[in-house]
Each structure stands twice: as C-alpha cells, then as structure tokens.
Specification:
about 325 residues; alpha/beta; Rossmann fold; Alpha-Beta Plaits; six-stranded mixed beta sheet; four-stranded antiparallel beta sheet; 14 strands; binds adenosine-5'-diphosphate; binds magnesium ion
Length: about 325
Amino acid sequence: MSTMLEIKGLTRQFGQFIAVNNVSFSVESGEVLGFLGPNGAGKSTTMKMVTGFLSPTSGTAVVCGDDVTRDPIAVKRHIGYLPEGAPLYEDMTPAGLLGFVANVRGLAGSDRRSAIDNAVAKLQLDEVYNQQIGTLSKGFKRRVGLAQAILHDPDVLILDEPTDGLDPNQKFQVRELIGEMSKDKAIVISTHLLEEVDAVCNRAVVIARGAKVADGTPADLERRSRYYNSVSVHLKTDRVDQLKSAVERIEHVSGVELGPVVDDVTQVLVVPMDGSEIVEAVNLQLVENNIPAEQIYVERGRLDDVFRQITSEGDAQ
Ligand SMILES: Nc1ncnc2c1ncn2[C@@H]1O[C@H](COP(=O)(O)OP(=O)(O)O)[C@@H](O)[C@H]1O
Ligand SMILES: [Mg+2]
C-alpha cells in the first residue's frame, strides 16, 4: 500500500471562528475512508481545502506527492471531487457536461472518447445521456456528478456526502460503485450516516467541532461502544426477573437493559463492564437456572452509540 493523500494540520478560520482545527490523517491506496461528523463539524470545509477550492489558514494536504498550497493544479489532476449537493449545470445534458469536463481535464482524441464512454457505462447514464440535467431525478443527477468526478480516472476520490438525499436503492448502487472503484484508489467519503461506514468503509475518521476525535477501523470504533460484547437474550416476558437476578451474580456484568417486547418475548441486553466477554457466563446461568431462551447472541457494539458519545463529549462545558 502506498500513501496517496496526506492531510497535515489542516486549519481554517472564518473570522474568529475555527471551522477546521489542526486535522491530520493519511489515506492509502485501496482504502475507503469514511469522514464522519455531525452537520457543521467541518467535513465540507476540509474537503474543499484538500481539493484546492479553499485555501487553508494553516497546514496543507499532499496528494500523490503534490502539495495543494504550492501546486493546486497538480493536485486537481490527481483528484476527482464530488462537491456537497453535487451542483451541476442544469441547462446542460450529461453529454455536454462530460464533454466540457473532458476538455477542461485536457483529454483529447481517443482518450477523451474512451474516458467518457467508460464513465457513462460505470454510472449507467446511457438512457439520460442527451436529456437536460435539470430534468433528471436526484439519483441520476448524483450519478452525473460521480461521472464527472471519475472521468479522468483519478487516483484519489473525494466525495462529499455522495448518497445524501438518495433513496435506499440509489444509495445501494452508489455504495456498490464506490466499493468497485476502491481497489486501486484512495477514496474519502464524508457522511453523517453511520450505516454508510458499515456498508463501504474500511476506515473511519470522526470529526466534531472542527477537530479529529477518532481514527480507526469500523471494528475499532464498535469496541468503544458501551454495548460492545453485550449479550442479547430474547425470552418470555414472565422470565425476565429470573434472568435479571441470575445474571446480576456474574462478575463483569455492569447492568441489564430491557429492549422491545414482541409477542410476549422480551429482549434483554446484558451489558458487560469494559467490553468483557460474558456470553459463556450468561449461558451458564441460563442452563443452571433452567431459564429457557428463544435467542441469545453477542452484540458487536453500536456505531451510532459511539458516534453520539464521541461527537458530543464536551457539549456540557
Ligand atoms: N464560508 C464560510 N464562512 C463562514 N462560516 C463557514 C463558511 N463555510 C463553513 N462555515 C462554517 O464552518 C462550519 C463547518 O461547516 P462545514 O464544513 O460545511 O460542515 P459539515 O460539512 O461537516 O456539515 C459550520 O459551522 C459552518 O457554518
Ligand atoms: Mg458538508
């Protein structure tokens, strides 16, 4: 693996307000990095600096060896960028827009033709190729935005909320496409949706109030959930009290939480201390106390729980 993108101490102030505060991380070829944060965290501002559309107050980004503060044009050559909301020229057709972008990218002759054909095929734009962009559905508009981003087959893709506003089928398609393209590229997608990380990312960087607060694999983040290694037991509601007193005897159990009741079956969540493995001990208590369970399984941890926790730390100050 080689480092394709290196973000070094990127900082951006708007007047007195620090929108992005000393953010650093790097992305290797083959990685799909989820750049996560609540609305207003500084994701788009960071992406605009990386892509050379906004100058940093301090810090820089190095893309395939080129420094964006010194040579933004070289950086733009390496990068495909889908801006937030994917603004497009509504009066143009995909044919016109892709031709225009190809010219800007300096593509000519057979390279130009094959770049456009390839992008149109990948994003399945044939049926709308000559239709005015303003009249296209949201899903197609996003696909046109992605087509212009990948047209020159860049090594690095920066996609700002690529699935925002799409319906579930369209989200699925865009995520599949990102997965397919990731083999030989470094891809950064910003999102405020946790499901997106599970679906496509092999790494996640979380920012809150402009600062990086976490960097790791989705599994690393899940381990930070208070529900990591919790044991979910589904059992008849009239057995819940029996289960509670049985599992409360187990060392390393911090508590028991009641989940939903469906058809008189209650989900009970047995929560460990510090992510300890308690499933065998829980199982043993069920057997020894003759408590019949309908289902028992270990929870992986909940990303939304971790996300809420790490992005709201300090809110009370
Ligand atoms: N041009 C600007 N002038 C002033 N404040 C801005 C500007 N652009 C962004 N901001 C502020 O910076 C913060 C981060 O914005 P943004 O990067 O768009 O967040 P995100 O993409 O994570 O939702 C927000 O509080 C936003 O209002
Ligand atoms: Mg944004």
